[in-house]
Amino acid sequence: MDSDTLQVFQSELTCSICMNCFLDPVTIDCGHSFCRPCLSLCWEEGQTPRSCPECRGISECLDFKTNIVLKRLSSLARQARATHDHSSEEQICVTHQEAKGLFCEADQTLLCGSCSEHPEHAAHSHSPIHRAAEESRKFVALRKEMIKLEYQRMHPMLQGEEQLHLEALEQEAKEICHQLKESVFRMTQQRESLREKYRELTEMCHKPDTELLQALGNVLEMTDLVEMQKPRSVNPELTCWPVSGILDMLNNFRVDNVLSQKMTFHNVSLSEDNTSLMFGDDDHGVSRQPWGGESFVAWGAVAFTSGRHYWEADVTHSSSWILGVCKNIFTSDTNISIDSEEAFLLFSMNVNNHYSLFTNAQPLVQYVKRPLGRIGVFLDYDNGAVSFYDVFRSSLIYSFLPSPFSSPLKPFLCLRSP
Question: Which of 65, 136, 252, 285 is most buried (most C-beta within 10 Å)?
């Protein structure tokens, strides 16, 4: 078969979804044919109505039989293509100048006839390339079917778990909304009460001296009562929902020893808006607030400029810490400063036994349970995303909204001594 005829033959046996020769082809109601795996992926679970990917015609039948004729023709097309490819230079054995027509199962390599008889391969099992390829396709198809069955088994479970989480979040949102409405009601009452007491005190200032002195006790009692009735702000603690399989996914991008540069400082201070940090004595005239205590600081010697990266930091023995990634870390022998521009940080602060968790840019309080143990940091540089995870609870703490990065980013960690 010449090259042009082979090309036309193959084009007629090409799946319009994957643009390759059919694998386990099925023909749907409208007459178009596709690989069964491609059609399964195209028709997502529960999608209705199910339309043809090519002509958009609606398909009523969902249980299709393999088109045996197309399957055989596709196999012949692959064999013809393989025969044609074998004539190319890369498929010619350099040693014997013969076409590589055999596949060595033990070494997973292509061999020519002379190489297969060499002592190195003589004891191994060999088969023609097209036959070995068809067997491999059957194996791959079997693995796909196993994965599909596992997906079908897991999908309802995940849907059920997702539904439970959504229902619980809806209930939690209602409760928090109720708390906020009650708080607004109490604050409105307090405002009216303060306005009334302000009016009474103003009138009292105009009373004669003797009356003013006699009513002084009532004034003190009134102001004390105002302090006692001051409404408290609502600080809801949001539930940390575990995300099934999230740590397994993140560990695919695990990198170790990212914090290779380390120092200890006695003076640590934050800018008033908590967006920039200074470690050491040089404050550059910027108004800052002291953090207090000795602090261990570590950062990456090498910055990330692409890809996905995940690492963890142990914060078990520190109630106050800062971690994340940042653009610039300015260092000297005695000082370190971090520019707030392109810094994505998570702060944990413990002041007078009051714990708070917040992020920078713009400072945003996170109303979640205090993370214990290890914190995971996931940097997706190509998509401009930084996320923080509570490893113990397998839950997301916070994810910055995606935005393109314009500079290399370095990992960063600061732990304050207990």
Answer: 136
How far, in Å, are 108, 233, 268, 360, 395 from residue 293 at the CA level? 61, 29, 8, 22, 30
Exposure letters 248-265 (e unless 16+ CB within 10 A, then b): eebeeeeeeebbebebeb
- Judged against a pLDDT cut of 50, whether residue 285 lies above it is answered with no
pLDDT in tens, 73-110: 888 887 776 655 555 545 778 777 777 778 888 778 88
Nearest to 380 by CA among 388, 368, 391: 388
Among residues 169, 180, 166, 168, which one has the least CA distance to residue 236?
A: 180
For β-strands 268-271 and 109-111, DSSP reports them as unpaired
- R_g of the chain, CA atoms, integer Å: 35
Three-state SS for the chain is CCHHHHHHHHHHCECCCCCCECCCEEECCCCCEEEHHHHHHHCCCCCCCCECCCCCCECCCCCCCECHHHHHHHHHHHHHHHHHHHCCHHHECCCCCCECCEEECCCCEEECHHHHCCHHHHCCCEEEHHHHHHHHHHHHHHHHHHHHHHHHHHHHHHHHHHHHHHHHHHHHHHHHHHHHHHHHHHHHHHHHHHHHHHHHHHHHHCCCHHHHHHCHHHHHHHHHHHHHCCCCCCCCCECCCECCCHHHHHHHHECCCCCCEEEEECCEEEECCCCCEEECCCCCCCCEEECCCCEEEEECCCCECCCEEEEEEECCCCCCEEEEEECCEEECCCCEEECCCCEEEEEEEEECCEEEEEECCCCEECCECCCCCEEEEEEECCCCEEEEEECCCCEEEEECCCCCCCCCEEEEEEEECC
- Give the mean pLDDT of the chain: 77
Say how far apart CA 333 and CA 415 lie, in whole Å: 20
- Amino acid occupying residue 406: S
**Pair 54, 43: CB distance under 8 Å:** no
Written as one letter, the residue type at 358 is F
Report residue 388: phi and psi, to 5°.
Answer: -120, 140
User: Tokens for 382?
Assistant: 């190509």
119-128 confidence digits (pLDDT tens): 777 778 888 8
> Mind listing the pLDDT tens digit for each residue in 145-196?
666 666 666 555 555 566 666 677 677 677 777 777 777 777 777 777 777 7
